[in-house]
């Protein structure tokens, strides 16, 4: 996968719990878990904005581009 979601790292750095973040930004814990695991196809900018606001971070702190080893 070329885009890696680093939400779990940011939560740990901020000593925040997934449950509290999900409640603060108005999404379910299940959806936040899917986002953390990278098993989503996309994320709304409003959700990304809310996460960044709650965790006091930038989108680049949450998402990382890692090139695939096998270029097409």
From TrEMBL:
Domain of life of the source: Bacteria
Pfam families in the record: HTH_26
InterPro entries, sorted: Cro/C1-type_HTH, Lambda_DNA-bd_dom_sf
Domain HTH cro/C1-type: 10-62
GO molecular function terms attached to this record: DNA binding
Protein name per the record: Helix-turn-helix transcriptional regulator
């Amino acid at each position: 996968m070329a885009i890696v979601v680093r939400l779990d790292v940011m939560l740990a750095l901020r000593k925040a719990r997934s449950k509290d973040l999900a409640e603060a930004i108005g999404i379910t814990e299940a959806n936040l878990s899917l986002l953390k695991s990278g098993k989503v196809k996309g994320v709304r900018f409003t959700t990304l904005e809310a996460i960044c606001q709650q965790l006091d971070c930038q989108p680049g702190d949450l998402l990382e581009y890692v090139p695939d080893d096998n270029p097409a």
